[in-house]
Write the structure tokens for this entry.
Amino acid sequence: MRFTSTRDKTVDISFLQAVMDCMPADGGLYVPEGNADLRRWILYTDETTPFSSIAGTLTSAFINTEFSPIICETIATKAFPFEPTLKQLDDNLFTLELFSGPTGSHRDFGVSYLAACLETILTLNGKRATFLDLTSGPHGAILSRELRGKERIKSVLLFPKGKVRGLDESDFVWNGGNVWPVEIDGDLEYCRRLIQEIFSDRELVKKLNLTVSTTANIGRLLPQAFFYTYAFSRLKEKVSGDIYYAMAPGNYSNLVAGLYSWRLSLPLRGFIVPTSGALGADIKGYPVITDSLVPLNQRPQVNPSDPSNLERLENFFTDYSAMIKSFIYPAKVDAAATEAAAKELYKKYELFADFETAQTYGAVKANKNLGDGSGDAVVLIQRDHPAYNADFVQSSLGERIEVPQKVQKALTPFDLKRPLAKTKEDLVKILEQVQ
């Protein structure tokens, strides 16, 4: 499978190139070109098929001209010593928990896969690379863990002032590790501007071998497509009708990855998603992307540190416009409906729901004509452990949720005891030292 850009369809590059040079020169995002028919293999999977095996086969489907199936399987095995958890709540409703990884965040899957894949690429090509990212949440703990033992990847990780957390000193570059944490004298938005400024300098990016571990990088996004085939392998003997997947908007990476699964011939009926300021519904209830009103060539460059996958979604709207109208089911869910949904999940199923999961269940209830008891099923995607949103759980349910140790560790504040960085020049000096 080859890859092109959301803004320039003349771009034609390999998966290796798309992962290494993660941002196209035109300011858009890389997307896969073409389809693959894996229906026969997908139908062969069952409850005994490991997640890593599914990931290895799908990796081979995405990049079959570059790596052998054995290498693809090796990447997946290294990346996934953990797997999602599918639970049945009633005859028609299931949950897919993506917080079974080391930090209780769905990001565990994508970052672990990208690190394993990139390390393989770099080893085969005798190269090195540096992630340049920012975080104020668990991403630092995830990167630190997944880069342990990697010989060819380093990370320069920005934190807004006062937001450093989830770190272990043994992972720092100056202690022999692979992560160089940097506390920035500014807020999250200022950190984003610094990263955008650096990635706008194409020569600098090439010189320093920079990439990102966000879903702007196609190597971080593609593994999210594995979730849907995994869920199907567990559902196919339990569900006689169609399967719908329901998910929070987020940055739309899960929705786009689900559509990539469909392009690999995964049997499914559609996706249910709450509306947002970016993805809404027209008078007939069909999905509408607000940004579509602005031509691609008139938009600013996508910020690699804060990507919205709406451009990738627009790519589907363009190529499959008729199908999309009957494939994505948006629903407006306000705060009251979200809280009511959280209470219903707890009363009916004893399920603690964070805001995202509750809002998504609200969208399922608004689309009550889907999965209506005729053998259809809805899979509710739970991205992060609800303890990450403990305040919402307590305010909506009046219950205090127990915070697992792995979540506590990922959010524990850390004092770097190092000078704050302020400018692009400060960051460039650090990036040069990491090489």
Notes: The chain is about 40% helix and 15% strand. The radius of gyration is 21 Å. The mean pLDDT is 92. Residues 107-125 form the longest helix (19 residues).
